[in-house]
Design brief:
The protein is an alpha+beta fold. The chain has nine helices and 31 strands. The chain folds into two domains: about 240 residues, TIM Barrel (Alpha-Beta Barrel), CATH 3.20.20.140; about 140 residues, Immunoglobulin-like, CATH 2.60.40. Strands 1, 2, 3, 4, 5, 9, 10, 13, 15, 16, 29, 30 and 31 form a 13-stranded mixed beta sheet that branches. Strands 17, 19, 22, 25, 26 and 27 form a six-stranded antiparallel beta sheet that branches. The mean pLDDT is about 95.
């Protein structure tokens, strides 16, 4: 996504030359560094996973389950023979598949997609960690037999060629949640706080922990770690177990990289210029005294500091918040501000495809043409069939494809209804168009619904979308639906906060953004020491 923050807030940034220089010299990239397929235990092929990542990510990893050194170490936490067996089989499978994994991942690298190797430790005592490798061609270590193997890695020293980050941190300590006592910020510059497991930012998380592994514990959250004086950046990853890296609204990482290269991404992770996203590629930039998010500022005593927060997305922003020492100190609702007519010709229009009867597959082949306006961008919202429990059974190998040629967008995908009334399994994308409201969207659909082939054409006038959404059923009641959201303006998708705060050693500060589609995004914290 192009640098909307630099373009939208350049007037504000003019008086802050260092901030402008940082944003002008960095590019905002989107990735997923922790997800699974059938190279260990999981579902879906490695080829499917790579193809899925190529549709909507800039960088990615496919993670192999590697080891659980203390699987039998604590008799107070019994583990069934079935659970132990499928884990051990998955670990052996990864060892056997590693050479194939390296070849396929290396072949996936291109000018528009950068892959990283990764593998995962489970741990009762210390929690689970993903190990991301900087370089291609690297080998797996031997499967550890010692119960303290993970602890030895966490003690250090740090290896410049790898990053170990904890994930699903919010589970109970001793039950594969994080152990803040053994956390090492040199080994783990970033922490995963959003995934299919839920969101572990705070007690008031928008996505609770509902997996079989248990509920969220307040002391285990991002805020719990910050209150214990730990410093770390934050990321989101899907932890998807069905070959779907970057699956929409399951967790993604945003980062400000000095270049769209392996080295640039690695440096951003090490420097913590990262954001944790649930879905949309919202751009967040937080500066304290012109230093970017992820920084540590050293101060002798309490001092006044200038805090600047910028947020930009392609979905309407509901609110932006500054959180100081786990307390919201400033909240802005852009939609509640005094209404100002849009001066921008830019509109964002979201289209979704799905609904219909649960379990009834619909194969979509959609062509959309923008007429009378300029198509500036297409932002995919593609989902895999959600799997986080390795014992779930999934056999589908289909994947979604989206492409753009000039003013035309082509989507091939599959939906099969929403699994519950609370789970969204639609597919879609967001259009960025400019040129006013006189344009038209022409949509042609070829759909295969069971034995029935449906051909449909729809026309959407942008002026009509200024006041509300429009929906079309393909074949009557409870048939699949095309839904086009109300157009939103650039002003509705951007917001900023500028504050003067008194900050002291031991303080921490970060920001979060809520969108009207339930998506949430977090900046990495700034810490004061």
């Amino acid at each position: 996504m192009k640098n909307m923050i630099l373009e939208r807030f350049k007037n504000s940034l003019r008086t802050r030359e260092k901030q402008h220089g940082f944003l002008a010299s960095h590019t905002y990239l989107i990735g997923d560094l922790h997800n699974h397929c059938n190279i260990s235990y999981g579902h879906g092929s490695l080829e499917k996973a790579i193809a899925f990542a190529s549709q909507q990510l800039d960088f990615f990893s496919i993670t192999g389950h590697f080891a659980w050194p203390d699987i039998a170490s604590d008799q107070d936490i019994p583990i069934s023979d079935q659970v132990a067996a499928y884990h051990m089989e998955g670990f052996r499978k990864l060892q056997n598949n590693w050479d194939l994994y390296r070849r396929k991942m290396d072949a996936a690298e291109s000018e528009s997609l950068i892959p990283f190797y990764s593998y995962e430790y489970h741990g009762l005592s210390n929690g689970d960690y993903t190990v991301v490798l900087r370089d291609t061609g690297m080998n797996l270590p031997p499967i550890p037999e010692a119960e303290d193997a993970l602890m030895n890695r966490l003690r250090g020293p740090a290896d410049e060629k790898e990053i170990m980050f904890p994930h699903h941190i919010g589970y109970m300590k001793g039950y594969r949640g994080i152990n803040w006592e053994t956390f090492n910020e040199e080994i783990s510059p970033v922490v995963e706080i959003i995934s299919l497991h839920g969101c572990a930012e705070s007690r008031n998380t928008p996505f609770p922990y509902l997996h079989t592994m248990g509920p969220l514990e307040r002391s285990q959250t991002m805020q719990g770690g910050l209150e214990q004086a730990h410093h770390f950046g934050v990321i989101g990853c899907t932890d998807h177990h069905n070959a779907s890296p970057g699956s929409f609204q399951s967790g993604r990482t945003g980062l400000w990289a000095s270049s769209f290269t392996r080295e640039g991404i690695w440096r951003a992770l090490k420097e913590r210029t990262t954001t944790a996203l649930s879905g949309d590629a919202a751009q967040l930039a937080l500066f304290v005294d012109n230093e970017p998010m992820g920084s540590v500022l050293f101060v002798q005593d309490a001092k006044p500091c200038t805090v600047d927060l910028y947020a930009a997305s392609y979905e309407e922003i509901q609110s932006i918040e500054l959180i100081h020492n786990s307390r919201v100190i400033r909240r802005v609702h852009p939609s509640d501000e005094t209404y100002v007519p849009s001066r921008s010709p830019t509109r964002f229009i979201a289209l979704s495809f799905g609904w219909g009867e649960k379990g009834v597959a619909c194969q979509w082949d959609v062509h959309l043409e923008v007429q009378g306006n300029v198509l500036e961008g297409v932002y995919p919202r593609l989902r895999g069939v959600d799997v986080v429990d390795p014992l779930d059974t999934v056999s589908d190998e289909s994947t979604s494809e989206i492409s753009r040629t000039g003013s035309d967008v082509h989507l091939k995908t599959m939906t099969s209804g929403n699994p519950t009334v609370h789970d969204d399994a639609t597919q879609g994308f967001v259009l960025e168009v400019s040129g006013g409201t006189a344009g038209t969207l022409r949509v042609s659909v070829h759909a295969v619904l069971g034995p029935t082939v449906l051909e449909r054409e729809f026309s959407l006038v942008l002026e009509e979308l200024e006041s509300g959404s429009v929906s079309f059923h393909l074949d009557g009641f409870v048939s699949p639906v095309i839904h086009c959201e109300k157009a939103v303006t650039l002003e509705q998708c951007t917001a900023e906060i500028h504050e003067q705060l008194i900050l002291s050693p031991g303080d921490h500060l970060y920001a979060r953004v809520f969108q009207t589609n339930r998506d949430v995004a977090y900046t990495s914290p700034v810490s004061f020491r």
